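Example record used in the benchmark description.
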Amino acid sequence: MRELRGRNALVTGGSGGIGAYIARALARAGSNVVISGRREEALASVVAELRQLGVAAEAVPGDLYERAHLDALIERSEAALGPLDVLVNNAGVEHAAAFTRYTRDELTSMIDLNLTAPLLLTHAVLPGMLERGRGHVVFIASVAGKLGPPYQAPYAATKAGLIGITQSLRSQYLHAPVGFSVICPGFVAGEGMYQRIVEQGMSSNRLMGTTTIEKVADKVIDAIRRDLPEVIESGTPLRPILALGQLSPRLVERVAPRIGVTELFRRVAASRGRAG
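Model output (structure tokens):
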């Protein structure tokens, strides 16, 4: 979808972090934007910013853990702005813990928000996009979905699922006028999950790298305009390591502890009393 001006977009998890930056990037490109999230005051603040950029913007508060809110989100968004041309599935949650320390509710709720919600929202919006002959769906996954880190098993599983969904939909709708992209950020400085880790006194290193929230948002716009299948934005050249992981999984799992991944996530889990 080369032209974003005048299009209507929905961004989930839009009350802060990456979602708010994606919403701003879409507005700067000329798109009207609906943002969804649980924090109504924060949503109102972002909407005010978007309107100052000269586009129509609305907030549709909702909790994507709740099926009733999920089922109504597309309908309410289209009632606010009109038919949706872009869906950005950004809402997600992460909990670092040793696998045996997760509760059953934590495991299933992470799947509900990170994986089931994007599936159902895409299922709801796609028929209209196909009928109108235009549309693009973006899934915000993670490098964790390409190479699962320790102490992040359910998060890695859900993000790998988003990558698989994207590949399947692109294959099925290869010749349809609708596109699908998955964005895989690494450690994102500025706001969000990684920033909270930094504020606790833990951080990445030069080998693991970091990227910025602005770069991730810009990559989303680029992916929509160019119909890119997959974008990895990490601040370091990870593709050779990911390719090596396909050829020699055992070698890569031995490398991960040496570059600090295991120790970082162990410390994060330990800071939450969930390391073992």
